[in-house]
Design brief:
Helices cover 44% and strands 15% of the residues. By secondary structure, the protein is of the alpha/beta class. It has a seven-stranded mixed β-sheet with strand order 1-3-2-4-5-6-7, sandwiched between helices. 46% of the residues are buried.
Amino acid sequence: MSNTTMELHTDVHDGDGPYLLLVHGMISSRAQWTPNLEALKEVCRPITVELWGHGRSPSPEDASQYYPENYVRMFEHLREDLGVEQWLVCGQSLGGSLTTRYALDHPDRVTAQICTNSMAAFGDPEWLKNIRNGATERAALVREGGHTAIEKMRFHPKNATRLPDEIRNDLVKAVELVDPMGIANTFEHTVTRTTTRERLHENKVPMLLVCGTFEKRFKPLRDFVEARMPHTEVVDLPAGHAVNLEGVDGFNESVVEFIKQNARAVSH
């Protein structure tokens, strides 16, 4: 798919079935989904997008472009451009907060949704307070230090100890494309506004939460989602935050089966 200025970079892949929007997390890229694409193509047509300042997407100067509600508008425009009434959505970490919000805002457009561990989507008030208190400082560090500052962050892929070398190397190479200005704006204007915790009871769309159990701090949020979010199924896998990369086979099998079930439901 061709792109013009100030559009999110988008790749539409071949496959069988409905479109599936895949949205990566912070300091990642379309490479986040590389180990999952072949399996997903058996049941859907994957679409990978890259967030502002990430991968091949530009970095707008306008702060409002980074607001979650603007991402929701852009996802909806993408769906309209594809000419489909409904599709599937899947988000990893920060991307999960955006796809969850999209499904809450446009339940009639989403057949089903998938999410991985996402503090950004489900964080409690204390988490959000800490994020907002540190956002300006973190953004300033990135603006001043550029890629050097980004490399020091714990969620930089080079610091991922559970990933296979090939996957980690691909992610590290992809991070070379990030724009520090876009990352700084994401810290200030996206992450600070992402949580959908107080709206989970509104959910009308089948939801699969694929949880990496090694990330202990996510356990209370996983339980909260299971208890408070209607139409939700939880699959626990022996993996960490990047569950789709650390537990590739389990993630692929769970998501493929979930899509098959919901595709049957729609066809009938």
